[in-house]
Amino acid sequence: MSINIPRGTQDILPGEVEKWQYIENTARDVCRRFNYKEIRTPIFEHTDLFLRSVGDTTDIVQKEMYTFTDRGDRSLTLRPEGTAAVVRSFVEQKLFGLPAQPTKLYYIGPMFRYERPQAGRFRQFVQFGVEALGSKDPAIDAEVIALAMEVYQALGLKKLKLVINSLGDKDSRTAHREALIKHFSPKIEEFCGDCKSRLDKNPMRILDCKKDRDHELMKTAPSILSYLNDESRTYFEKVQSYLSDFGIEFEVDPGLVRGLDYYNHTAFEIMSNAEGFGAITTLCGGGRYNGLVEDIGGPDTPGIGFALSIERLLAALAAEGIKLPLEEKIDCYLVALGENAGDKCVSLLQQLRKAGVSGEKDYLDRKVKAQFKSADRLSARFVGVLGDDELERNVINVKDMTTGEQEEVIITDFISYIKENLS
Ligand code: HAM
Fold first, then answer.
1. Predicted TM-score of the model (pTM)
2. What is the domain-level CATH number for residue 43?
3. How many domains does the chain have?
4. Tens digit of each residue's pLDDT (9 = 90 or more) over 101-148
């Protein structure tokens, strides 16, 4: 019996993996420009970390975590997202004590959620995310949003919609929370089980319910924006004015609540509005999480970040018909005729590669014609043809595949000839 790949995961094969590398390189380059440094944290963490940060009323914690007990009887969880681990590391490694503040970090790596797989929703997916810790300047909020937009735009995406909201500070949220409870309580029996259990714990999440989204009380629910205190309102206005100054278009949506518990103040999502993108249009989500560092045991430190998945980014590229400029050429293919020439090609190929040139040869004893076919398939820029006869005369025949020109080159000059002509 053969063994299949687990549901909601995928193999990324050559031909496809180049797109991933291109996207990852682009993200890294944008981070370099914005001065964010890479951090790599473990794939699994203590389960408590996610209970304390993501929040126990969230879908992630209630039904999506891959949690297991290890041989030492510890409860561990495959990370469902990246923020918690970055904050844990920030506290544990005392990054707050380093001279360069705020601490600006990024990560690229697999995350795991036990979700129902469908287009754009996987059980293992790769997030690229950034976290800026240590500043409560609204300019950092704008910077983080601009960074996310820049990654998409650098890849050629155009059909993007940025939606922002403010969830306010603690006081604003408490006032809003009370208003929501008052609003929903009289008719909570008409809502789904999730909403009922959220009423007391986290009523804001009711606004995010897909099942009850058409209920009349949803449309008339009190908006968080009416409950922002002066400080929160001024903060939100400043973020918006920076975005406008950057020329980044956005929509304010008071219904944007996000599905993780640690957010306050700025929350945002970037969607694709490309035709045919499919049901799940959110490409990227993030927001501010002042207070999270303290909750994890660190000093009072504000923070903001976002994460996007490469899977959804690829879907957005496909929906907009964007082809990434992928370089698939090989520099030089060596065709050998005869046994001695074959051995010489093995040696020349090693020299080419040591000299920084990409090269390939045949390893399956193919006929000359088939070797040329291979060179073609690899889009070789040069083909070096060596027969026993040429070998005796100490030359190799080099064909430039872009011009069709051929030249006999002395074997000892071959490597430098290829190097010079490639540039
Ligand atoms: P999130 O909204 O849960 O936020 O996920 C962020 C992004 O990850 C989504 O917008 C989507 O692109 C992608 N994503 C989530 N689940 C899946 C899935 N099952 N399959 C494919 N892609 C998925 C967070 O994770 C926060 N940690 C973001 C953040 C960072 N907030 C502050 N800093």
1. 0.94
2. 3.30.930.10
3. 2
4. 999 999 999 999 999 999 999 999 999 999 999 999 999 999 999 999
